[in-house]
Design brief:
The strands form two sheets. The chain has a four-stranded antiparallel β-sheet, covered by helices on one side. It has a two-stranded antiparallel ribbon with strand order 1-2. β3 and β4 form a beta hairpin. It starts with a strand and ends in an 8-residue tail after the last helix. 10% of the residues are buried. It is α+β, with helices and mostly antiparallel strands. It has a domain of 58 residues.
């Protein structure tokens, strides 16, 4: 008679393993514990933290071929306008200013494509 094998995801460490069905049925399932965290006296509630105004998102667009900066400290609309003269999203490196770190962060390709999709649709 053939054995039935299952993927046991209750293992510790790096991942799951394939075990006979009988082994998983004979072992009791472990309960997961939830940790409740209370705000300390020195921490502000999330509502107060969200009331502070957010800094505007700033972009920098650099032409890959010439290494020239096309737009710097530009808002989203200005960054999209800077992209309109390019043939492909791969022709530019798009950075966003990280206020927390105080430096430019390169946008991943998927995020750059999202910004690229607005080319020609600004209508102002």
């Amino acid at each position: 008679m053939a054995k039935t094998w299952v993927l046991d995801t209750e293992t510790k460490g790096t991942g799951a393993e394939v075990v006979p069905l009988e082994k998983t049925l004979s072992q009791p399932r472990r309960e997961r514990e939830l940790a409740l965290v209370e705000l300390g006296a020195g921490l502000a509630p999330a509502e107060e933290a969200s009331e502070s105004p957010r800094a505007p998102t700033l972009f920098k667009v650099v032409d890959v071929m010439s290494s020239q900066t096309i737009a710097e400290n530009a808002g989203a609309r200005e960054a999209v306008r800077a992209l309109e003269g390019l043939r492909s999203v791969l022709d530019a490196r798009i950075f966003v200013w990280s206020h927390e770190r105080g430096r430019w962060r390169l946008l991943p390709l998927e995020e750059a494509k999202s910004l690229w999709a607005y080319r020609g649709r600004l209508g102002d």
